[in-house]
Amino acid sequence: MRLSARLLRTSVFVDTSAFYALADRTDLRHSSAKRFVELNTELLVTSNLVIHETITLIRTRLGHAAAVKFGRRLFDEHITPVLWVTPRDEREAWATFQRYRDKQFSFTDCSSFALMQRHGIPSAFAFDEDFRQIGRWVVYPTEHAR
Fold it and tell me: What is the tens place of the pLDDT at every residue in 26-81?
């Protein structure tokens, strides 16, 4: 799916932590995640690396069947379009990963930061603290901000 630069500049990037909260009905953040998706009016986008990380996490915690079921939804780009991390994004991610040794950023998080920067994506839907710690984007849901 081809997305305009203008549309991306108003979109919300979905992190693995948000997808996992949606997938696991027993997760403490499930209802908050579900409510955000129901009330959100902006386009939700993600990356190919977040999809990889999400399917792997669901497989590890909830089992193969749950990972396949949720993966089918992730690969439906009419629900959440997928942006591909480029080699340039990876180089930027590696630089960020090396720079922040005092943070627990995963390489996937750093790749997400690079991709969001490249596309001008202003916000993220995430529950882990990484997007808040980097301090460049608005992070939803806001009730989880510290």
Answer: 999 999 999 999 999 999 999 999 999 999 999 999 999 999 999 999 988 788 99
Domain coordinates in residue numbering, the chain: 8-84+123-139
What is the pTM (predicted TM-score) of this model?
0.94
Is 3.30.70.260 the CATH classification of the domain at 8-84+123-139? Answer: no
Residue 80 neighbours by CB under 8 Å, 6+ apart: 14, 44, 45, 46, 74
Q: What is the 3-state secondary structure (H, E, C) of the chain?
A: CCCCHHHHCCCEEECHHHHHHHHCCCCCCHHHHHHHHHHCCCCEEEEHHHHHHHHHHHHHHHCHHHHHHHHHHHCCCCCCCEECCCHHHHHHHHHHHHHCCCCCCCHHHHHHHHHHHHHCCCEEECCCCHHHHHCCCEEECHHHCC
Tokens read off for 116: 């969001």
Give the per-residue pLDDT at 34.
97
Q: Residue 140 forms beta bridges with which residues?
A: 125
Ramachandran angles phi, psi of 44, nearest 5°: -95, 130
